[in-house]
Backbone:
């Protein structure tokens, strides 16, 4: 039976949101001079800019993290989520400056970054608001989960 042990929201940074919206801003600025030549093309470009910005905002920036008794889901807007079962997780550690894996950016500071190391899969880097509480709760639940696994 799934049970929520700990929930946290990401530490959100204005700079990250700015970077996510940057492609849309560039498209919108480019659309203005295009409207002088073709109003229809300019409107299509503005619509594309808004759609790209919303899509990136919904699909790239997480809205919450949780620790269940058997998995860690990363939640996005709406009903989207990305689950990491404990069977695929080796452990968590402080994220390094350069990581190869799935980076879910919410903060430019590395101080809150946690890297979830996984077996034969890409590591996942997240930035919970309370890094220490997240790591402590995960380690506690993960050790308990490992006790009940058949070797």
Residues:
């Amino acid at each position: 039976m799934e049970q929520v042990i700990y929930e946290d929201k990401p530490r959100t940074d204005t700079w990250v949101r700015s970077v996510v919206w940057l492609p849309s801003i560039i498209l919108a600025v480019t659309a203005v001079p295009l409207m002088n030549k073709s109003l229809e093309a300019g409107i299509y470009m503005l619509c594309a800019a808004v759609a790209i910005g919303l899509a990136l905002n919904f699909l790239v920036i997480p809205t919450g993290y949780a620790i269940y008794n058997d998995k860690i889901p990363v939640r996005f807007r709406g009903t989207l989520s990305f689950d990491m079962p404990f069977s695929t997780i080796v452990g968590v550690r402080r994220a390094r400056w350069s990581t190869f894996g799935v980076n879910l950016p919410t903060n430019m500071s590395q101080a809150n970054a946690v890297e979830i190391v996984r077996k034969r899969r890409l590591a996942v880097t997240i930035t919970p608001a309370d890094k220490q509480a997240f790591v402590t709760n995960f380690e506690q639940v993960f050790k308990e989960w490992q006790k009940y696994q058949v070797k």
